[in-house]
Amino acid sequence: MKNKLFILLIILIQLTAAAGLHGQIAARQKLTLTVIITNIKKPGDTVRALLWKGEKGFPKEKEFSYRKKSVRAKTDSVVIVFNGLSKGDYAVSCFYDENNNRKYDRSFWQRTAEPFGLSGTPDYKNLPVKYEDAKIELLKPETIRIELHYTSDAHRLFNFD
Fold first, then answer.
1. Which residues form the domain of 93?
2. Cα gap 129→41, rounded to integer Å
3. Within a 10 A sphere around the Cβ of 40, how many other Cβ atoms?
């Protein structure tokens, strides 16, 4: 009888340890955010996307972004994938780099800019958009769509005034 209780106790300890390890693995599980960027009117140039994990520098100061990705547009849409993310809040800003100089451009009068887009549900009529308006909560692998906007008010998105 003592042997059976001892064996049962060992099995119970092993099951408890395995459950704890499973919980640790689940907590460290990395997620993927797939971003589909649409409304590319002139394929051939590069779409640049910045992933943000906080409001500092959002949406234009790329040195404060969490991750950066670029992809050449071959059609009217591109897919950018951010792998290895933890659960949490993120935002994405992107622009179509029409001259491939790796920066968001404006004209001399600061009235025209390259096409841009943001994650979340930003109000493009109330620019500049804040991180809180563009953030999404990543709890599981997600796919989001961002439509590029072509507007002479784009300079206000990046607060160049």
1. 29-157
2. 23
3. 19
- Is residue 14, in this structure, part of any structural domain at all? no
* Nearest to 39, CA basis, from 81, 86, 95: 95
Length of the chain: 161
Whose tokens are 């059976």? That residue is 4
Q: Does 24 map to a domain? A: no
On whether residue 10 sits in a domain, the answer given is no
Average pLDDT of the residues in 135-155: 86
> What CATH number did the domain enclosing 68 receive?
2.60.40.1120
Specify the DSSP class assigned to residue 127.
Answer: P
- pLDDT tens track for 72-104: 999 999 999 999 999 999 999 999 998 888 777
Whether the full predicted model's pTM is greater than 0.70, yes or no, is yes
- Answer yes or no: are the C-beta atoms of 88 and 118 closer than 8 Å: no
